[in-house]
């Protein structure tokens, strides 16, 4: 294995930490979502619990964070929907090249999400407030796009590195296939 890849592989535990933190945040958001919805339902049907007006907007905001952050997690696992119907007919080198091309496109999307998401959060979000919570800025409604862009950028850099690395370092499966022929 080339020395450069050995050095870069030492950074991979950082990605594990970022992944685990992001996953933990998604779990907290899901738990909070469930608790807020349970409180909302209880407020509607149990007379001594007040019917809170703020719950719907909080639930939607938490869900937007979960949706975009979980999409970033899917990048790391390679779990996004992609076209693989022709992979068995194409040369492996071409498939690797197409994977890198897709990585570059996703990197561009991540940068756009960071820049535009931050712009929307700063410009549009800071000018308004939630209807049911006038003390809370709508910044938090638009911020998940920029936050997910950062997570996508980090995970996509790792995916791009792994695809480039695959050109120079054979995996155990590739070594076994080479021995069979």
Briefly say what this structure is.
The protein has 181 residues and is mostly helical. Helix content is 75%, strand content 0%.
Question: What does this protein structure show overall?
Answer:
- This protein has 181 residues and is mostly helical.
- The protein is built from 6 helices and no strands.
- It has one domain.
- The protein has helices at 3-9, 12-45, 55-77, 92-123, 139-168, 172-180.
- The longest helix is centred in the N-terminal third of the chain and has 34 residues, at 12-45.
- It is elongated, with a radius of gyration of 22 Å.
Keywords:
mainly alpha; 181 residues; 0% strand
Strand-pairing-aware structural class: mainly alpha
Number of domains: 1
Radius of gyration: 22 Å
Distance between the termini: 22 Å
- The number of E-state strands comes to 0
Shape, per Cα inertia axes: elongated
Question: Residue-averaged pLDDT, rounded?
Answer: 87
The parts where pLDDT drops under 50 for at least 5 residues are none
Overall helicity: over 70%
The arrangement of helices and strands along the chain is HHHHHH
Query: Count of helical segments?
Result: 6
Characterize the largest beta sheet: strand count, sense, and whether it forms a barrel: none
Q: What proportion strand?
A: under 5%
């Amino acid at each position: 294995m080339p020395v450069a890849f050995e050095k870069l592989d030492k950074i991979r535990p950082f990605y594990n930490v970022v992944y685990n933190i992001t996953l933990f945040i998604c779990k907290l958001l899901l738990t909070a979502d469930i608790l807020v919805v349970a409180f909302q339902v209880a407020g509607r049907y149990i007379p001594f619990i007040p019917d809170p007006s703020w719950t719907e907007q909080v639930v939607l905001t938490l869900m937007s964070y979960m949706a975009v952050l979980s999409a970033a997690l899917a990048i790391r696992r390679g779990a996004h929907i992609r076209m693989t119907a022709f992979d068995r007919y194409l040369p492996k080198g071409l498939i690797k090249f197409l994977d890198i091309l897709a990585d570059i496109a996703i990197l561009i999307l991540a940068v756009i999400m960071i820049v535009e998401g931050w712009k929307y959060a700063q410009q549009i979000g800071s000018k308004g407030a939630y209807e049911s919570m006038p003390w809370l800025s709508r910044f938090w409604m638009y911020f998940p796009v920029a936050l997910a862009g950062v997570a996508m950028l980090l995970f996509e850099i790792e995916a791009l590195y792994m695809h480039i690395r695959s050109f120079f370092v054979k995996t155990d499966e590739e070594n076994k296939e080479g021995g069979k022929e």
